Amino acid sequence: MNQLAEGLASIDYVIIGVYMAGVLIIGSYFAKYVHSASDLFLAGRALPFWAIGMSIVVSDIGAIDLITGADAAYQRGIAQANFDWIGSVPALLIAAFIFVPYYWRAGVFTLPEFLGRRYNAGTRWIHALVLLLFMLGTLSIMLWTSAVFLNNVLGWDHLVGIWVTAVVVGIYTASGGLAAVVMTDVMQLVVMFVGTAALLVLGMWEIGGWSGLVENILAQPGLDQDYFRLLLPHEPGTAYPWPGMVFSLGIIMSTAYFVGNQAVMQRALGARTEWDAKAGMLTAGIFKLLIPALVFLPGMAARALIPELAPGEAAVPSLINALMPAGLKGLMFAAFFAALMSSVDSYLNSCVTIFTSDVYRPFHERFVGRQMSDLFGLVLGRMLTVGVLLAAAWYAPRFEESTTLYDVIQTLLSLFQGPTLAILLLGIFWHRATGWGGLAGLTIGFCLTFGLNVLGEAVFMSEAAYLYVSFWSFWFALVVTVIVSLLTRKEPSAKLEGLVYGLVISDDDEPPRSTP
Amino acid sequence: MPYSFLPADHFQFAAAIVRAGADDGSWSERAQQALQDALGPPIKALHGPVDAWLGSLPMSVAVACTMGLYVVAMVWVWVLRREFVFRGAPDQRWWRDLRIWSTVVLLPYIAVYIWLGR
């Protein structure tokens, strides 16, 4: 990232300043529409499809992805694009037409709440706890990334960088809630796309277009036609073998990621109609088509223009320094910051939603003896937004020494992916799936995934063992859920109403709405 | 899904948890061996033949499978009931038909995989 700060002109700093002020103003504007917890967490269920789609895409792509994704494309070529193409579109379609209608009609605030209604409190708690840990850890490391970024660009001390980001994001997230998060995401998507498109155009112009890129790269020693192939053979040593890409990433991993991720699904839950929720997922699919061009293609252009990167140098910063004039550099910085902030605000809002809805609410109902009021939920949500930010900002500097905690949390989440998809799918399509079945599928599936990870390459004989681990863990959790469900007592039909295929609410009925 | 979310490193980390201390013959070494004994044979029996079969297939099958995934998705959305697709839409004009949207979304992906897949 240090490379990025070289040669910044005054105009670049002005652009960065204008961008940050713009985000703060737009975000804070939406505070006037927030009068209840539903407004804070689900934007009053008034989000239009275009905002949902754009927000999903920009929340999904972080500043780290802009750098590491381009670096991976620099090394391995266009096969990297699979993660945004085959790793997104079939999953978004499945999400739009299978999962989103059930989530939206159930009127829930969170995915753990959906699992709790369909299965039992244990399943809800485990899922909520894993998501909470993941989001808190991610939030913390994102604040640290932001601090490193601001230190390199503006020379600010790390602590100052962390607190400035926390205050800017905190102000509009606490006051404007999901509506502010989504609408600033829309602005951030535009900034990110314009910045990265400028870099792509300059890079491709310099290299002589697509044909120049191909010609130049194929002339480099050690690189062949595979650099320009999306599907690579199923051989030992291949980083992305095609069966793993198509069957595991394309069907299992990406679907589990999109339908089991609160930060993604919260936008659909806040849609003004079921149609907007579904159309939002498809809109995300349209924008996803452009991500590889904007993120990975600059990495490949860097390979053509700068074949030998110095140790520690990254592809995109090198390309920016080589090609971008003053003014455009500032735009590129704003694009990086947009990618960063859009992820921070999304995870913050979703984290607080889960905390309020799945952790605090059951305690409130049990010990106070009545449901939480909407106004209380709003005040609590705002206080928790500040509290969660403080906790994440307090922990963030510790990532300078070690990222072990983040690795543990990420590992934990990845181990739950296959099993979570299995119980969600059975929960929606199979009436006979029971609470105990779901709980067993989730926990035993988790244990098996851990075991398979330990065996890893020894069993799967592939550099990409994780692709096959996800595949098998999904099927294993599916089988466990079926067996335990058949051995336990059937759920009453009243409990399944609106949550299972064939027992949906009729078109004329207003969906039930839960309180946070 | 985002590249940074890839669990490759995390899986290595999970393995490292159990492998930690393996040099001194501690519990982790025994745990790893036990896992290897318990899970290795059945997983190899399931995955091995599939792995060998997939390795023997020509790359044209890879392109066909990818196309198949996209085409099946495209056909599937056209099988969905019209009322389900339009539920919640302000009207039923053709441009609000999400089946058309899905086709429009999928076609560029199909074109890209035909171009760069083989």
Textual characterization of the structure:
The complex is a heterodimer of chains A (516) and B (118). Helices cover 73% and strands 0% of the residues of chain A. With 516 residues, chain A is mainly α. Chain A has a single domain, classed as Sodium/glucose cotransporter, CATH 1.20.1730.10. The longest helix of chain A has 50 residues. Chain B has 118 residues and is mainly alpha-helical. Chain B has two domains: 43 residues, no CATH class; 59 residues. Chain B is built from five helices and no strands. In chain B, helix 3 runs antiparallel to helix 5. The longest helix of chain B has 30 residues. Chains A and B meet through helix 4, helix 5, helix 10, helix 12 and helix 17 of A and helix 1, helix 2, helix 3, helix 4 and helix 5 of B.
Descriptive tags:
heterodimer; A: 516 residues; mainly alpha; Sodium/glucose cotransporter; 21 helices; globular; B: 118 residues; elongated
Gist of the model:
Chain A is mostly helical and 516 residues long. In chain A, 73% of the residues lie in helices and 0% in strands.
Please state the CA-atom Rg of chain B, rounded to the nearest Å: 23 Å
Q: Helical region count of chain A?
A: 21
Helix residue percentage of chain B: over 70%
Distance between the termini of chain B: 23 Å
Mean pLDDT of chain B: 79
Mean pLDDT of chain A: 86
Question: How many domains, in number, for the residues of chain A?
Answer: 1
Low-confidence stretches of chain B: 7-14
Helix content of chain A: over 70%
